Amino acid sequence: MSADPAQDPTAALVSLLNLDSAAGAQTDEEIFVATPVRQPGKRIFGGQVLAQALVAAIRTVDTVRSVHSMHGYFLRAGDAALPITFGVQRLRDGRSFSARRVHAYQNGVPILSMIASFQQPDDGITHQEPMPGNIPEPESLPSTADLLGRFDHPVAKAWAYDRPFDIRHVDSPLYVENTGAKEPVNAVWMKTFGPMPEDPSVHQAALAYASDYTLLESILRPHDLTWIHPGMSVASLDHAMWWHRPVKVDEWLLYVQASPSASGARGLATGKIYSRGGELVATVAQEGMVRVPSDVGNRVKGAVQKKLMDQKMRRWKA
Fold first, then answer.
1. CB neighbour list of residue 42: distance below 8 Å, 6 or more residues apart
2. Which residue has better confidence, 141 or 15?
3. Pick the residue with more confidence: 305 or 116?
4. Residue 266: CB partners within 8 Å, gap ≥ 6?
5. How much is the pTM?
6. How far apart are CA 94 and CA 265, in angstroms?
7. Domain boundaries in the chain?
8. φ and ψ at 83, to 5 degrees?
9. How many Å apart are CA 316 and CA 301, to the nearest integer?
10. Which of 58, 65, 254, 307 is the most buried (most CB within 10 A)?
11. Picking from 24-28, 129-133, 212-216, 268-272, which range would have the lowest pLDDT averaged per residue?
12. In whole angstroms, what is the distance from residue 147 CA to residue 145 CA?
């Protein structure tokens, strides 16, 4: 569903996951390029860079091997108006596992550094944490368009109509108000608006894209914060993800999130992603920077105090 009928969000997602090979350009890395896509703001959505970096790594691995984990650091904010160059290094190709290092570059410097690991199919022991019970069905919950479509603001319109995923909050959403229980938990149903290609690796990359949507809300919720809290600054610092079982992102998935800790203007959030049938398909962890105006004041105060103490120490030593 899109405010612009010519723009199909699902088709846009498939397009951004289709990287160019940079016309054979290569250094000690294998090079891929992603062209800019429309964004509601100046910064690139972190999930986009994660997904595209993963696609670049997938392009260099035997198709029989599927990604099972990735660990990435967001190093700089990405510019949504510029293309992204991805450099892939082949770290290892063993009997069962392959490892790839991917850097995403803009203006000649990395904005993301990631290592991903791949495994060929194998049998082994099996267990999983069960999906929570008493979760309302996704069809009974309002969509983002239902919640934000009435607001005449470009970011609200983009979130309501241009995202490729239909996101439905089990708990009260934090777009403009925080009315639910003030606990460090969050849960959403999600799926793409339209059907995706059959390629399993496309579904895995698309899940990486969506895994960055709401994860930090588990950090905001207990502190009565919303996404429009005045003066608040939020940014993802790192992102880790493990794929456990096959996944289809064009079918409903339950994303259950929790924050075990927040301190030092950082919060940790973890997430478990289940199929509608109850299979645990992936686990996610992310640390985010969360600064509210009081954090800024404390940092300035601390810097002033340190400067005064340094001056006193210099006088004492003299």
1. 79, 80, 81
2. 141
3. 116
4. 237, 287, 288, 289, 290
5. 0.86
6. 40
7. 9-121+134-299
8. -70, 165
9. 23
10. 58
11. 24-28
12. 5
CATH code for the structural domain at 9-121+134-299: 2.40.160.210
Residue whose pair of structure tokens reads 């250094």 in the numeric block: 27
How would you classify residue 107: left for phi > 0, otherwise alpha for psi between -120 and 50, otherwise beta? left
Cβ-proximal residues to 301 (8 Å cutoff; 6+ apart), any chain: none
Q: How confident is the model at residue 304 (pLDDT cuts 50, 70, 90)?
A: very low
- Single-letter amino acid, residue 296: V
Return the exposure string of 115-126: e unless at least 16 CB atoms fall within 10 Å of the residue's CB, then b.
bbbbbeeeeeee
Question: Which stretches of the chain are DSSP H helices?
Answer: 9-16, 46-58, 144-148, 154-161, 200-210, 217-220, 293-317
Q: Which residues are catalytic?
A: 212, 236, 286
Q: pLDDT-based confidence at 15, cuts 50/70/90? A: confident
Of the candidates 191, 261, 201, 235, the one whose C-alpha atom is nearest the C-alpha of residue 45 is 235
231-257 residue pLDDT tens = 999 999 999 999 999 999 999 999 999
AA identity, residue 60: T
Distance separating alpha carbons of residues 69 and 97, to the nearest angstrom: 11
On the question of pLDDT at 3 being above 50, the answer is: no
Rg (CA), the chain: 21
Band (pLDDT 50/70/90 cuts) for residue 29 is confident
Rounded CA-CA distance 134/136 in Å is 6
CA pair distance 226, 224, nearest whole angstrom: 7
